[in-house]
Structures are given as C-alpha cells and as structure tokens.
Amino acid sequence: MPKSSVVRGETASAKQEADAGRERGGGIQSIERAFSILTQIGQHDDGINLADLSKAVGLHTSTAFHLVRTMVELGVVRQAKGTKRYHLGRMIFSLAASSSSEVDLIATATPYLEALAQDSGEGSHFAMLSGDDVVIVARGAGTGAFQLVERAGGARPAHCTGIGKVLLAGMDDTRFESWLRSAKLTALTEKSITDPSQMRLEVEQVRQAGVGYDDAEYNEEVRCVACPVYDFSGQVVGAVGVSGPIWRMNLQRMEHITQSVRQTAAQLSEDLGHSPG
C-alpha cells in the first residue's frame, strides 16, 4: 500500500476529513465533533459501540475512532474492557461536581430567583442543607407590599418549612430516619408537624408530588411553596421556594406560584446538568 494512503493508521478518507476540519476552522470542527461524540455517549446509559457512535455523529469510523481514543486518553471518555463500549469518563463527572460547589450554585440560582420574584411578586429563595440544617443561601426580592425578609445565610427548621420538607424528601431513607431520630419537631405554630409518623407521611407526599408546602407551619401569617433542584447525577442539591403572607397567598395564587416554582426549579436543574428521565 502506498505510504501516502496511511497516516498513523488513518485511511485516506479519514485524513481528508481531518484536513477539511483544520482548513475550515483551525480545529473548531474537531471540537464540534468531540462534543457531538460526548452528547451521543451521554445519551446511552449502557454505553455505545464504535460503529453505532460513528453512524450517530455522521463520521467515518476511523475518524470517530481517533477522536474518541484521544478523549479516552484525556479521561473524558472511558471504554469498558469487556464490551468495548464507550461511556462518559470520570473527568466529566469531576468537572460537573466542581461546578456544583455552593458558590457556583448561588451564582447560577440568583438570576432565576430574581425572575421568579418578579413573576410572583413575592420573595424567592434558594436553600441547601448544611449538615442537617436548612440554610437559605440566595434570595430574590419580591415586588409586592409587606415583603418578608429571607436573609441569606439564615437557618430554617426543616420540619415546618416548604424548602425543608423538599430537602428532607431528597434524602435516602437511611439518612432521613437518622435525621428524624435526632430532630426536635418543635411546634412553632399550631399547624407545625410534631409527630414523627406524620412527618414520614408528609415527606413521602413531597417525594411523590415533587413540591413541598408550608401552610402557616413556621410563621402563622406565612405560606410557602418549594420544589427540588437536581444536579447532573439526579441528586437533590437544593430547593427553590417562594414565601408570602397568607392573605396574599390564597388558593388561586398558590396554584400559579407553584407552577412558576416548578418551572424555575426545572430550569435551574437543567443548568446544573440534570436530564429528567
């Protein structure tokens, strides 16, 4: 075979594709192809073989092989030894985990909270767990009169707040039961849940509905609705909520606000890499 027809094992057609990519955009096409490969691999939970991968991204098999082999060497893709199928590598998950730090979460969540506050007219907030404590880490100021002050950094009890119930619902059973054994279910109002069995039932309802409510359980003049925020791995990393005075948060407004909170939580989750299954 003529020497010119083989370059590091590539076929002539594969080399022509690579050359075309370099001529078109100085390597930009290769980056586009790499992201197409990552996207296809990420869509296959059981991995994908080379033939199906090259077909899915519209590349010659040899070209796809050299791109994905480089990605394997970089750690963004891994190949299972037994099946030879390709999966997302550790580096992808490490990068995603790094971007899910508290600071990045706050920066990502803040614009959504501001938009939610504008839409609802009520104060919005984003909460996370710090140990077993529920902490408000970011907020958006509402536009209506008589606004509630949800100070960033303030702690809230989990058992009688919408955001707290959502974060409890995101725990696995073992962790939730551990929390329940040590939790003080203090009655802050006459509506606060103080019975462990009722708390279990409430958390299960939140898991099924995907939304948590506080109906004057923390403050007798306040109602709150909250929804979970998920990261790329499907774990609950926070809760988005809206709080307002009872006389303004009537049934009709609660329905509208619940939909807005759901949408905001879904959009923020998507920004964090979550793909609902």
UniProtKB/TrEMBL annotation:
Residues 16-25 have a biased composition (Basic and acidic residues). One of its GO terms (biological process) is negative regulation of DNA-templated transcription. Residues 1-25 are annotated as: Disordered. Residues 28-90 form the HTH iclR-type domain. Keywords: DNA-binding, Plasmid, Transcription, Transcription regulation. Residues 91-274 form the IclR-ED domain. The keyword DNA-binding applies. Pfam families: HTH_IclR, IclR_C. One of its GO terms (molecular function) is DNA-binding transcription factor activity. This is Transcriptional regulator KdgR. The keyword Nucleotide-binding does not apply.
